[in-house]
């Protein structure tokens, strides 16, 4: 009986890994599809968002010169609150830095993620500070 239980757990583990691989593959496909359509310039850079389980990173990228103009992240900061609240704080921070660098309009790159929750909170906060996209 314990041997059968072991095989059931192993089958479930293999099934979960296959599902994870499928999710990651689909995320990569969505990301490439979005990146094929948008590109940043010096006048209108690309605002790209990377969201993990713990942190959020945002960059304004000039794709022509291939360099980051402005960046903001929660890594190394002592922000408290939920990830959504931290996303809003990062949105205001990146907007302030962008306006300081004389950038008012950007192209929004959601990086294959669904525009909801943390991503929409970040975008709304950036728009509220005066960034246009």
Contiguous helical run count: 3
Spatial extent as radius of gyration: 19 Å
**Chain-averaged pLDDT:** 85
Spatial strand arrangement across the major sheet: 3-2-1-4
- Principal-axis shape equals globular
The helix/strand order is: HEEEHEH
Largest β sheet strand count, sense and barrel closure: 4 strands, mixed
Q: Which structural class should the secondary elements be placed in?
A: alpha+beta
Fraction of residues in β-strands: 15-25%
First-residue to last-residue Cα separation = 60 Å
Low-pLDDT stretches are none
Query: Number of DSSP strands?
Result: 4
Which percent bin holds the helix content?
A: 40-55%
Task: Explain this structure.
This protein has helices at 2-37, 83-100, 118-128, and strands spanning 46-51, 56-62, 67-73, 107-109. With 133 residues, the protein is of the alpha+beta class. Helix 2 (83-100) runs parallel beside helix 3 (118-128). It is built from 3 helices and 4 strands; from the N terminus they run αβββαβα.
Concise overview:
With 133 residues, this protein is α+β, with helices and mostly antiparallel strands. Helix content is 49%, strand content 17%.
Q: Which features would summarize this protein structure in a list?
A:
133 residues, alpha+beta, four-stranded mixed beta sheet, 3 helices, 4 strands, globular
Set down the secondary structure blueprint.
Blueprint: H1 2-37, E1 46-51, E2 56-62, E3 67-73, H2 83-100, E4 107-109, H3 118-128
Parallel strand pairs: 1-4
Antiparallel strand pairs: 1-2, 2-3
